[in-house]
Amino acid sequence: MFDWLKRIQSSVTSVEEVLQYFEQMLEDGRYMFETASNTLLAGTNPEAVKADLWATDKRINRLERRIRRHVVTHLTMHGAGAISSDLVLMSIVKDAERIGDYCKNIFDLSVLGRGFPDGVREDLLESKSSITRLLAKARNIYKSEDEEDARAFIAQADALAQHCDARAMAMVAREDPDGKSAISALTYRYFKRILSHAINIITSVVVPVDQLDYYDEDVEGREDG
Predict the structure, then answer these.
(1) Is the Cβ–Cβ distance between 209 and 88 less than 8 Å?
(2) Domain 10-221 class in CATH
(3) Predicted TM-score (pTM) of this structure
(4) Those residues with Cβ within 8 angstroms of residue 51's Cβ, 6 or more apart along the chain or in another chain
């Protein structure tokens, strides 16, 4: 358990409960990503999964609110001494919540039904599989606090995010009479944003609070971490 998380024990919510809430958010984010991406890329019927997808997103939001209420209570009880640990928690919880939002964006693209240019679907499917595995790893790394695994995760996710960014820019540069390149560019962009939020979560294993959220949308503009 993280040293900073050990300090958030209160009479209202136990550390174990907070951990369970956050781990559930991570698992729900992975599930939403896989479900939404399969709807867009693998032909899953959108109407068959929409209600479940939205219900999962609502659960993520409820869990975020529970953790936020705990943070407020903890700050009230412990004052300035709790600020650092609570800032970490608030930051990574928001990242977990944003993953669900981008998954809904991916699902919305599936409703348009425009397809993809030749070869793009295959690359997106390969990227989707890699991201799904990374999101599953994120939960395990968060629980184990293994810094070596965390750094390997960040390197792998960063490389994949750069790949998605380059592919998105390539799609934007193409002529697009049927809208397929635009859908492709947005998909790659949403994939990249999900990766960036996962990276921010895992950086909490290896960096101090002032370096969280180091991963900007633009690779060239982010701080080195």
Answers:
(1) yes
(2) mainly alpha
(3) 0.86
(4) none
